[in-house]
From TrEMBL:
NCBIfam families listed in its UniProt record: CydC
Domain ABC transporter, residue spans: 350-573
Key word Transmembrane helix present: yes
Lineage summary: Bacteria, Pseudomonadati, Pseudomonadota, Alphaproteobacteria, Acetobacterales
Name the UniProt record assigns to this protein: ATP-binding cassette subfamily C protein CydC
Cited Pfam families: ABC_membrane, ABC_tran
Gene Ontology CC annotations of this record: plasma membrane
One GO biological process term: cell redox homeostasis
Subcellular location(s) of the protein: Cell membrane
Membrane topology: Multi-pass membrane protein
């Protein structure tokens, strides 16, 4: 499956690009939908003729009745009834299968776009809104096929056939049917379109606000309760929900009005065709039985126009959804492709040269012409006031942000030629804002090292000073940690993050405030076990805790956007 590389925007164009590889399947779905509509038309058309023909034969006396051949039209009616059932079934199977596949392709496309943006490119996006786009906007774009393309194509193709069939009997009736179908199928959706676009936009905006607020509230319900802000959130939702309900209601009214207008046009056309057919019958151009046949034919023909207002609304939703997805997933800046680029190699030294960096949309640089060398195997404490730029070094090392100038080399390789996954093979990070996933303790540990043995798990838990705690749990490592590790204390969760980093066995370990939330004896025990276990591993420990520093070989202070020596060349005794 080839995914579209460029934008999705443009409604039909975006959909067309997305459907590469599925087009035959989708075309088959349209074919079955047309077959079902044509069979429906044939059924009603022929039934009208059959009923009227039988009635005329009955009234005409025995000779006429004997001459009336009921077998052929009755067989035709049965044939169309069977074809309609079969085609409808196949249409559902093929078209819905195609729509599901489209949805799958689209979600893969969105994920492929979103993943490289994390974390820097997602800083300004709200999680709930993003989730909403990922789920409901992808659904709306995928539904473009079943809810927009299919009804419009069916109306167009079948409409031409219906008019052609009418033309075989009487041209004025065919012209009237064509005019009626154009009015109902083209003009009505065109008239309703702009208002639908506006209401769909209002509805989508309200919905995305509600989703974003809901996700944020559920995630931080504890804080809202503590801040006595929970009832304020509920009121906010009520207002937003009322706004969304109003937009939905207006959309429903508009769509019903458009459908009602098509019904009016249907009956007006049927009436017109009746008059024309009666005149043609009087002129001897049509038989009596053909008059009701044509009238019923009009009713059947308009079956394909009736769903078009709803299809127009779905088109507005799909178009808006493609624009929202495009906006949420801009193409990431292409990384410089370095043919045969090397991976870092031993010794894994970090060399930072004249590095300057400011976060996007900020004025003050976090680093300005900063220089730093950390040799493999060193244990370095990185200190400095809160917000000075210690953690930013991780963002730059992993390429989450691009420096304004200067360079960072790791293991002899310029990190700008590496991706985050490359770096992760050499550097494990227990970040300050670590995240534990809803699962068991074991699940979270194995996420870092899926093939870790029981012995390896036990070893890292021992180093992270978690053995006693795990043994105290009735379910041990099978204990469910809750959403975001909420069933663990802050210090326990942080040590699980440290254990994850240790489990990966990389030559570098970056620990951001590893002992935060620990009492003094536990802090000492953790640091002692860490440095003992990681004798040959480089440790960079970002910390405010003085008690951690004696465990380091040296200390670097971040000051005035530069790295400065912050402690003796060898602090360890
Ligand atoms: N994604 C971001 N966009 C804009 N500014 C940011 C971003 N991340 C961090 N900053 C700013 O950059 C500065 C350095 O942040 P950083 O997290 O590196 O500080 P730190 O020294 O690690 O702080 P702490 O000790 O509190 O963890 C801060 O002023 C912060 O507000």
């Amino acid at each position: 499956m080839t995914m579209p590389q460029d934008s999705l925007a443009g409604g039909a164009q975006g959909f067309f690009r997305l459907s590469v590889g599925l087009r035959w399947r989708l075309a088959l779905g349209v074919g079955f939908a047309c077959a079902a509509a044509l069979a429906s038309f044939g059924l009603l058309f022929l039934s009208g003729w059959l009923l009227a023909g039988a009635a005329v034969a009955g009234l005409g006396g025995q000779a006429v009745a004997r001459a009336f051949n009921i077998v052929l039209p009755a067989t035709g009616v049965r044939f169309f009834a069977m074809v309609r059932i079969l085609a409808r079934y196949l249409e559902r199977v093929v078209a819905h299968d195609g729509a599901l596949r489209l949805g799958g392709h689209l979600r893969a496309w969105v994920y492929a776009r979103l993943a490289p943006l994390a974390p820097a490119g997602l800083v300004d996006q709200q999680g709930g809104d993003l989730l909403g786009r990922f789920v409901s906007d992808t659904d709306k774009v995928a539904a473009y096929y079943t809810d927009v393309a299919l009804p419009f194509l069916r109306a167009l193709l079948c409409g031409v056939v219906f008019v052609g069939v009418f033309a075989c009997f009487t041209l004025p009736a065919a012209a009237l049917l064509a005019a009626g179908l154009l009015l109902g199928g083209v003009l009505v959706p065109l008239l309703a379109g702009p208002a639908m676009d506006r209401l769909v936009r209002v509805e989508a905006e309200q919905q995305s606000h509600i989703q974003a607020e809901l996700a944020q509230t559920l995630q931080n319900m504890g804080e809202y309760l503590l801040l006595d802000a929970a009832s304020g959130r509920a009121r906010l939702w009520q207002v937003q929900q009322a706004g969304m309900d109003k937009a939905c209601w207006k959309l429903d009214v508009l769509e019903s009005a458009a459908r009602g207008l098509i019904t009016l046009i249907t009956f007006a056309t049927a009436l017109g065709v009746l008059v024309l057919a009666v005149n043609a019958c009087r002129a001897g151009q049509l038989s009596v039985a053909e008059v009701p046949m044509l009238v019923l034919g009009v009713l059947a023909a308009f079956d394909v126009a009736a769903p078009l207002p709803l299809a127009r609304q779905a088109a507005a939703q799909a178009k808006l959804a493609t624009m929202r997805l495009d906006a949420a997933c801009p193409p990431s800046a292409p990384r410089p492709v370095v043919q045969g680029a090397d991976l870092p190699h031993a010794p894994y030294d970090l060399v930072v040269r004249d590095l300057s960096f400011a976060y996007p949309k900020t004025v003050s640089p976090v680093l300005q012409n900063a220089n730093l060398i950390i040799r493999q195997g060193e244990h370095v404490g990185l200190i400095g006031p809160s917000g000075i730029g210690k953690s930013s070094l991780i963002n730059l090392l992993f390429g989450f942000y691009v420096p304004d100038s200067g360079s960072i080399s790791f293991g002899g390789v310029d990190v700008s030629t590496l991706c985050a996954e490359d770096m992760a093979a050499f550097v494990s990070v227990a970040a300050q804002d670590f995240h534990l996933f809803a699962g068991t303790l074991r699940d979270n540990l194995l996420l870092a090292a899926p093939h870790a043995t029981e012995q390896e798990l036990a070893d890292v838990l021992e180093t992270a000073q978690l053995t006693q705690f795990i043994q105290s749990l009735p379910q041990g490592l099978q204990t469910w940690v809750g959403n975001d590790g909420l069933r663990l204390s802050g210090g326990q969760a942080r040590r699980v993050a440290v254990a994850q980093a240790l489990l990966r066995g990389t030559p570098w370990l970056v620990l951001d405030e590893p002992t935060e939330g620990l009492d003094a004896p536990l802090e000492q025990a953790l640091m002692a076990a860490l440095v003992q276990r990681c004798e040959r591993t480089t440790i960079v420990c970002m910390t405010h805790r003085q008690a951690v520093l004696p465990f380091m070989h040296r200390v670097i202070r971040v000051e005035d956007a530069c790295f400065r020596p912050g402690g003796g060349s060898d602090m360890k005794s």
